[in-house]
Amino acid sequence: MTSCGYCALFLVLVLVLVLVVLGAVNSVPMAIEIDIAHVARLARLGIPEEELAAYGEQLEVILEHAAAVQGADTEGVKPTAHPLGITNAFRQDEVRPSLDRAAVLEQGPDTTDEYFRVPPAMETE
Amino acid sequence: MSAADLSIAEAQAQLASGALSSVELTEAVLARASMTEAQLHSFLHIDHAGARAAAEAADSKIADGTGGSLAGIPIALKDNMVTEGIETTCSSKILSGWVPPYDGALSQAMKAADAVMVGKTNLDEFAMGSSTENSAFGTSRNPWDTDRVPGGSSGGSAVAVTIGSALGSFGSDTGGSIRQPASLCGIVGMKPTYGLVSRFGLIAFASSLDQIGPFSRTVQDSVSLLEAAAGPDKMDATSYKGAYPNFGGSLGKGVSGLRIGVVKEFGGEGQEAGVTARFDATVAALEAAGAEVLEVSLPHAKYSVSTYYLIAPAECSANLARFDGVRYGLRVDGETVEDMMRKTRAEGFGPEVTRRILLGTYALSAGYYDAFYGQARRLRTLVIRDFATAYETCDVLVSPTSPTTAFKIGERSQDPLAMYLSDIYTIPSNLAGHPAISVPVGSDDLGLPVGFQIMAPALGEEMMYQVADAVETLMGRSPMPVLSEVAS
Fold it and tell me: Would residue B306 count as lying in a domain?
């Protein structure tokens, strides 16, 4: 067998493994374990260390209740995003005035004449 | 009797005949608010000067016959609706002090109707809650018992109308946030079909569920308020562009021959006996009035609360990403922009909003997306199919609005899951995008109001209002709370 053939075989095996794992996730109710610090990081919430554990426990209780959804048979059911099934909404591309820049900037916490000002995006040495 | 006790229809008759001016009516409403606010806290902001100016303008228009459909009528808006020049906070520290430079669609519609905007009402922070206890600016109180919650999240809008600090008001309903407080306060609260009222300028919580609707003391007034608010809007891509129902077209026609379905999965454990008693009495009255009452099944209703508490937090975690300390509201300084955002959001959001952002972020995160959010969206389809099957044999469905009457302040605030279960009967209509209304049908042994919910298929508002009107006629209009007891 050529090296390319080994590659293809390997990829097929990986694919089968992934499908098996995904299938297991779909059919077995999962035990709820939350890395709450990771979730808070994803959500850009700088929650104090001492409050994090309590949020984690509350989320586990709520998610154990919510995990009931995994008991429903939804084989072949399409998901709903819009309740009335409205798809594309078009309107004329008309030029219209935008909000007054000065009025908008007035509400910002830190602004210059033309821009919102924020701290540096990268840490400085 | 004060003019503040009038229904909108009664006030309109007096305004038209010249027996009452909008200035007099508005002063009566403002006086009622100043008498009761310290106790009830329904408003975050009362716009005395703006209301008086709008009332004077409305009086001139009424005099020369050019007034809009709500000319001179004092109304209140939930403080998650954007109002130009008037602070809009969503009851959150993160938006404290924000004065919007534009009007949302509802504020525009109320100005076009020549209504008098009295003020902005209290809510659970970002409309997340069932009691107003999650407001960063204090809890509103139920006028029937001030130790109890008014319901939520649109609790302030419900209290204002109950007490006469406005003749009508608007709230938003994502999982029951109009109907549940209407039920707990003994007034009429209605959620329209998804898309009938523009969401432009409604600060988003869960976009596929949020819908604006009216609070009123009568069913007729609910129709008048909805007529002024509903309509297509190019600023809202999810706005409904087809033919709109004739909302009040069948008022007064009664229920003879209508098929009314009682949902058999509702009414189990957790429903109070006083609620069951009023519900059963109302169904019996409808049957005696000629309706055919059937038992129907919504087999997936048992998954509704779980489905909702995956979809709503998922959408909220995305929608509330915009509150980052850059363009408006609070900023807490940080070393880097991300540090600033993390500190601002931790400081600005209260515990329930934080909890839901975390919940939604988790449900959408890699590895859990399909098992939670994906499954919830498929269940939503099954809930819609359940309704479709039920409406093959019924014209409308009915249930209690809430399994309990008003609960004590503090009773559920430490148990998020118990609070979430307040919405068990209201959530299915949000998942399906269908209209539903709560109408008062008397009170329990403690004198606390009980609400009766009527659900209809998408765009079925005309028949929903027909049944609501019949219920109001059969069971009687809810009285107003005794003010001396409230103000004491």
Answer: yes
